[in-house]
Specification:
Among the domains are: about 140 residues, TIM Barrel (Alpha-Beta Barrel); about 35 residues, no CATH class; about 260 residues, Immunoglobulin-like. The chain is built from 21 helices and 34 strands. Strands 17-18-21-22-23-24-25-26 form an 8-stranded parallel barrel. Strand 27 and strand 28 form a beta hairpin. It is elongated. About 40% of the residues are buried.
Length: about 900
């Protein structure tokens, strides 16, 4: 029986460190710390003892502590065997996936740092490295204006990594020496190409620095061993064998070498009369066991003397020249701003593609082909971050934006224009988050940015990567978080610019056959089960956070990826529909892994799911069987408002329908993001609520005043109830806060590529009128949440919903919200219940004149005192005036003790 002792600390490395997944990030080593040595006893039969099994079981339970694959089902009291089994199998699949990824990465989270290796990167060895994944290609080269678009000059060469078994290609682009310059004579000389561009350009040569370091580091006589490295072994050889020692292996066989201890004692005897400083610094210890190797121990004086020495690192670092010295000596292999593409030779012939990891792409314009741009600006031109991200607020007031249509002029707007004109407006309007869509490079402008072609590139339509960084930095300076509408549910099907048929094959990033194509949108569907695809998508999420300081993501059309039918199926709510054969398990594992990695790497990140099917556990923790999102979008609300306004007369609106749609499932209401309308209701074919309400009004007609009053009243009431009855997040699309009168229509063939509707009418706010009134109300509505913490409070107590009187009332903390949707009936004294007796003050009234109302409530009616009368199941009530189509917000300002 043998006993095996495990070390108390060990470092785990991958089985093949040369794999491309090995990230060069700071997260490069994982340590497992054990508090004590564990001994595993094995018998001759090789079976573990019962106490071992017990310890192993305990260890596994510690690893799984707090993890329950069906935890959210238990919490909600849901009993469904098939779905519970599905969740357990999904949890096991996730563990298996992590183990597989761990074999190819030092740590699981290293899979999110692929951008540090892939694409173009400057190397300190006076070169630029390019790596691309294209398993179907036979030959790879980088072509561009820097090499005359030659497919043979800069290619993957044998002996320079070239091509590995996983389909990764490696191309080295050597920087060129200028005329008259010579290569560096020392291998450790480096050039800091990006940062500190003038550091080290003092003109001191490497030889002078080395001589200075040598003189300072070595004591007199010590450096002779550095100059003649064979002196020490030669003297040792002569000491052991004498001046006429053996010269060949055959002669050596006849000599009997004394053991190490004997040689040490003989040497010590020779130096017994020498001063202590000349004695050998080592001693020999022997534990008395035959299998022990003699342990060498040094004296304390010698050890402290050795530790006191410090290597001349400052001198070595000073040999690192700066950017000026680099430019004096070298010509960059691929200069900043160069156009380039990747060239492949495939079984179907040669082809050129925009690199998948390109960070800046110039889209097709005027018939010119799309190409990538090498973005490596000089340090004095690169953006330096000035502001840090604001703290995540308890309630999100999100302002959804599209940079291209954010200007007043009929043209594509820019990042710089958005920064200067729109960001101050968002700050004034009282929002605390901007959510951008259409920022990632996409094929067609009229698709609003949802057919993404280059996932790592900021769209060149609006400016450069530095321009976008300045926009984000300025937003942070205004106290605004920046969210990105990310599209990982599908990709553009364009072959010349996107990822489709990237390497000439059909199964590189996407599924083959029908599953690889969206049933209705003509886009390509990712193969989420492939490790390289996971590497690409997870790194993409981390890239936007690390490179551009993005604070959150809204995952677009999650239902398109979770189901093989892309979410286009009827759902009855039966849990069987969420675990049947149409569920894409690989895509689901990707969403779980994405949320886990994002929240691990960036704990303050916010993720939002846009899922029309409301997958169970969408916002539950991944450790409890959920998908891990922070919020989900209630897509039923904007559809309801559009349907009511366009199809149902005002007097037939059903209050209970409004409330049930707004609240949704009560157990998930706190995770719900609500909006009355977003860009979907305004873009290409749709109509914004303002266009429905005001679009057909002829201001010269006799009933224009009444129509404007109706439209203005409903616009305010819809926004007020939508933003205050739900969870902790509310969203508004750019311009809708002031009732933008026209829809959005991007230039396309059907409108002769007109920009007339691809902008925002900010000029409408300059004059007094309905748009200014609506903006004043929306601004005060946002201020109400900021001052009274409406959204961050607990869920409202909805105690009064009357379909006959068309009145809705609910409490939220000390606030009372009352809505009268009736088109004709006003109520002088309408009773609504309140729990707390006291005085209630009107703090927001949609009928005020500054909001475009009639100001029908008198000033003396703004303060109301409760009546001791049980109404709506509450102990007290208020009798409040309710003009038609108005809403009021009351605040408890004084408590009366009865």
């Amino acid at each position: 029986m043998t006993s095996l002792s495990l070390p108390t600390k060990f470092s785990l490395y991958p089985s093949n460190p040369s794999l491309p997944f090995h990230s060069r990030s700071k997260h490069q080593r994982i340590h497992f710390i054990r508090t004590k040595t564990i001994k595993i006893t094995c018998t001759a039969s090789g079976q573990p003892q019962p106490d071992q099994l017990k310890k192993k079981k305990t260890s596994q339970s510690e690893d799984e502590k707090g993890v329950d694959p069906v935890g959210f089902l238990t919490k909600l009291g849901i009993a469904h065997k098939a779905f519970a089994l599905f969740l357990r199998e999904r949890h096991k699949s996730l563990k298996d996936l992590k183990e597989e990824l761990f074999k190819r990465n030092l740590q699981i989270k290293d899979i999110a740092y692929g951008y540090e290796l892939m694409g173009l990167h400057r190397n300190v060895e006076h070169r630029v490295d390019y790596m691309e994944w294209a398993p179907g290609a036979r030959y790879c080269a980088l072509v561009g204006d820097f090499n005359g678009w030659s497919p043979t000059e800069d290619c993957a060469r044998e002996g320079h990594f070239g091509h590995d078994d996983y389909g990764y290609w490696f191309v080295i682009l050597e920087d060129k020496l200028r005329d008259g310059e010579k290569p560096d004579g020392y291998y450790f000389q480096r050039y800091n190409y990006v940062d500190d561009y003038d550091k080290g350009d003092s003109g001191v040569s490497a030889e002078e620095l080395l001589q200075k370091a040598n003189d300072e580091y070595w004591e007199p006589g010590e450096d002779r061993f550095a100059k003649n490295r064979f002196e020490v072994p030669a003297k040792l050889y002569e000491q052991i064998f004498g001046p006429n020692g053996p010269q060949t292996f055959e002669e050596l066989e006849g000599f009997q070498l004394p053991d190490a201890e004997t040689r040490y004692k003989d040497g010590k005897e020779q130096h017994k009369d020498d001063p202590p400083s000349n004695l050998p610094p080592y001693d020999v210890t022997d534990n008395g066991k035959y299998y022990d190797v003699f342990n060498i121990a040094n004296t304390r004086e010698w050890y402290e003397k050795f530790r006191a020495k410090s290597p001349p690192l400052p001198y070595w670092l000073e040999t690192c020249k700066g950017r000026k010295a680099w430019f004096k000596k070298y010509i960059p292999a691929i200069p900043h701003g160069s156009k380039y593409r990747v060239y492949f030779n495939t079984p179907n012939g040669p082809l050129e593609r925009v690199p998948a990891w390109a960070t800046y792409v110039q889209p097709e314009a005027d018939g010119n082909q799309t190409f990538a741009i090498h973005w490596e600006p000089p340090p004095e031109c690169a953006h330096k971050w000035k502001h840090t991200s604001p703290e995540v607020p308890k309630s999100l007031r999100i302002y959804e934006c599209h940079v291209g249509i954010s200007g007043s002029e009929p043209k594509i707007s820019s990042f710089n224009s958005f920064k200067e004109k729109v960001l101050p407006h968002v700050k004034e309007a009282g929002y605390n988050v901007i959510q951008l869509f259409g920022v990632v490079e996409h094929r067609d402008y009229f698709t609003a940015g949802y057919r993404v072609t280059n996932f790592y590139a900021v769209s060149g339509r609006y400016g450069t990567p530095e321009d976008f960084k300045r926009l984000v930095d300025e937003a942070h300076g205004h106290g605004l978080l920046v969210f990105l509408d990310i599209v990982h549910s599908y990709s553009a099907a364009d072959e010349m610019v996107g990822l489709s048929l990237f390497d000439g094959s059909n199964d590189c990033y996407f599924h083959t056959g029908k599953r690889g194509h969206h049933k209705f949108w003509g886009t390509r569907m990712f193969k989420y089960g492939d490790h390289e695809v996971l590497h690409f998508l997870l790194s993409n999420l981390n890239w936007w956070v690390e490179e551009y300081q993005i604070d959150g993501f809204q995952f677009h059309s999650v239902s398109s990826m979770l189901y093989t039918h892309n979410g286009f199926a009827s759902f009855t709510g039966d849990l069987e529909e969420y675990c049947n054969q149409y569920v894409d398990k690989d895509a689901m594992l990707y969403t779980v892994l994405a949320n886990e990695l994002l929240h691990t790497l960036h704990p303050s990140i916010i993720t939002i799911a846009e899922d029309a099917t409301y997958y169970p556990g969408l916002c539950e923790p991944t450790s409890q069987g959920g998908l891990g999102f922070d919020y989900y979008v209630n897509l039923s609300v904007p559809e309801m408002w559009s349907s009511f306004l366009e199809n149902i007369p005002d007097h037939q609106w059903i209050m209970s329908k409004i409330v049930s749609t707004l609240v949704g499932k009560k157990q998930h209401a706190d995770k719900m993001l609500l909006y009355a309308e977003n860009h979907h209701q305004s873009i290409s074919g749709g109509r914004s609520l303002a266009e429905v309400l005001f679009g057909g009004i002829d201001e010269r007609s006799s009933d224009a005043k009444e129509a404007l009053l109706r439209g203005c009243s409903l616009h305010k009431m819809i926004r007020c109830i939508t933003s205050t009855i739900g969870g902790h997040a509310y969203l508004n699309f750019m311009g809708n806060e002031f009732g933008h009168p026209k829809r959005v229509e991007f230039p396309m063939p059907s409108n002769n590529f007109s920009f007339s509707l691809a902008n925002r009418r900010w000029d409408l706010l300059e004059n007094e009128g309905v748009h200014r009134h609506l903006f004043n109300f929306d601004k005060d509505l946002m201020k109400l949440d900021k001052n009274e913490r409406v959204l961050s409070r607990g869920l409202p107590n909805i105690h009064h919903v009357n379909d006959t009187t068309m009145v809705i009332s609910y409490n939220r903390g000390p606030l009372l919200f009352v809505f009268n949707f009736h088109p004709t009936e006003s109520y002088e004294r309408y009773s609504v219940g309140v729990e707390e007796a006291g005085e209630y003050q009107v703090i927001l009234n949609t009928d005020e004149k500054k909001y475009g109302g009639q100001d029908l409530i008198r000033e003396d009616q703004y303060l109301q005192r409760t009546i001791s009368k049980r109404v709506d199941g509450l102990r007290n009530c208020l009798e409040v005036p309710l003009p038609r189509r108005t809403a009021q917000v009351y605040k408890l300002t004084r408590i009366l003790r009865i």
